Amino acid sequence: MNKTRELLIQCKKKLGIETDYKLAQAMEIHRARISAYMAGKETPDFYTCLRIAEILDREPTIVIAEVQADTEKNEQRKSFFKRILHHAKKFEAEAWRFGNRSIYDFPTASTNLKPEKETAETIKRKKLWESAQEAEKLEQQKKKK
C-alpha cells in the first residue's frame, strides 16, 4: 500500500468517515484528487499534506517527507527526503522526550528543559529517540569503515 493511501485511510478512521467523498469534503479538496491519491496516480500537494498532518496531529515536515520519499522517482531526491524524514523523526522524538507534543513546542533556551513525568507515550517516544541515536551511531561507524 502506498504511503499516501495509508495516511488517507488513517484520516478517515480518525474522522470517523467511510467514503472518499466525505474525506474530500472534510479536507476541502476535490473528490477526484482523493481518488487519484488513493490509486497512487498523483502525489499530494503541500496543502493536502498539511491537511493530513493537521487531521492526524502529526508534524507537517514528517508527513511531507514521508509522502515525497514514497512517491519520488528520482533516487537522489528520494534519498534526500528519506534523510529529512530521519532527522525530523529524530527531532520529534527529542521533543517528546521533553514532554512536548510538537516540534513547534520544543523548549527554547529561556524555558525549563526538565522533562515532565514519564507517561506511556513519553516512554515510547524516549525509546524511539534512543533507537534513532543508535541508528545514527551505526551509520557513522559504517562511514568510517
Q: Structural class, from secondary structure content? A: mainly alpha
By DSSP (H or I, 4+ residues per run), the number of helices equals 7
Compute the separation of the termini in Å: 36 Å
Fraction of helical residues = 55-70%
The first-level CATH class name of the largest domain: Mainly Alpha
Q: Number of folding domains?
A: 2
Write the CATH architecture name of the largest domain. Orthogonal Bundle
Strand content: under 5%
CATH topology tier name of the largest domain: 434 Repressor (Amino-terminal Domain)
Largest sheet: none
Rg, rounded, reads: 17 Å
User: In CATH, what is the homologous superfamily of the largest domain?
Assistant: lambda repressor-like DNA-binding domains
Q: Provide the low-confidence segments as ranges.
A: 103-115
Q: In one word, what is the shape?
A: flat
- DSSP, total strands: 0
What's the pLDDT, averaged over the residues?
Answer: 81
| Topology order in helix (H) and strand (E) letters | HHHHHHH
